[in-house]
Amino acid sequence: MRIGIDVGGTNTDAVLLGDDDSVLAAVKSPTTSDVSSGITASLGALQDQRAFDPAGVKAVMIGTTHFINALVEARRLAPTAALRLGLPATAALPPMVDWPQRLVEAVSGRSYLAHGGHEFDGRTISELDPDELRRHAADMAAHGVRSVAITSVFSPVNTEFELRAAEVLAEELPDVAISLSHQIGRIGLLERENATIVNAALRELASDIVGGLFAAVAGAGIDAPIYLSQNDGTLMDVEHARRYPVSTFASGPTNSMRGAAVLSGVTTCAVVDVGGTTSDVGVLTRGFPREATTEVSVAGIRTNFRMPDVLSIGIGGGSLVRGAGSSATVGPDSVGYRLTERALVFGGDTLTATDIAVAAGRADIGDRARVAHLDKELVAAALARIAADVADAVDRMRTSSQPLPVVAVGGGSVLLPEHLPGSGEVLRPENFAVANAIGAAIAQVGGEVDRVFTIEPGRRGDVLEAARAEAVERAISNGAVPSSVEVLEIDEVPLPYLPGGATRIRVKAVGDLSLTARSSVDLREPLPVGSRA
Amino acid sequence: MSAATAPRQLREVGLAEVRAISRGAAVLGTGGGGDPHIGALMAAAAIRAYGPVALTPLAELPDDAVVLPVAMMGAPTVMVEKIPSADQVGRAVEALTRHLGLGVTHVACIEAGGVNSLVPVAAAAELGLPLVDGDGMGRAFPELQQVLLTLTGVRATPMSVVDEKGNCAVLDTVDNRWAERLARSVTIDMGCSAMISNYAMDGAAARRGLVPGTLSLAASLGDLLEPGAAGDDPAAAVAEHLGGRVLARAKVIDVERRTTTGFARGTAVLEGSGCDVGRTLTIDFQNENLLVRDRPADRDDDGERVIATAPDLICLLDTATGAAITTEQLRFGHRVSVIVAPCDPRWRSPEGLALAGPSAFGYPDDAVLLEGVSA
Question: Are B209 and B297 part of one and the same domain?
Answer without folding.
Answer: no
